Amino acid sequence: MKKVFVMLFLAAGASVAMAQSQKVISGVSSFTATLPEFSYDGKAQIFTREKSDQGTVQKITFYSNDFTKQGELTINQEEYEYNYKNEERAWVDGKYTGDWQVVNEGKDKHYSDIISLDLEDFDQSCNDFRQIYISQTIFNSDDKYEYLMPVISIVNDSFEEDRDGDGVIDYRGSGTTPKMTGIKVVSESGEVLQTINFPDGFTSSPSKGYDLMKINNKLYLRIGGNDADNSRATLLCSIGTAESGGGDKTRGDVNGDGVVNAADVVKVVDIISGN
Question: The pTM is what?
Answer without folding.
Answer: 0.76
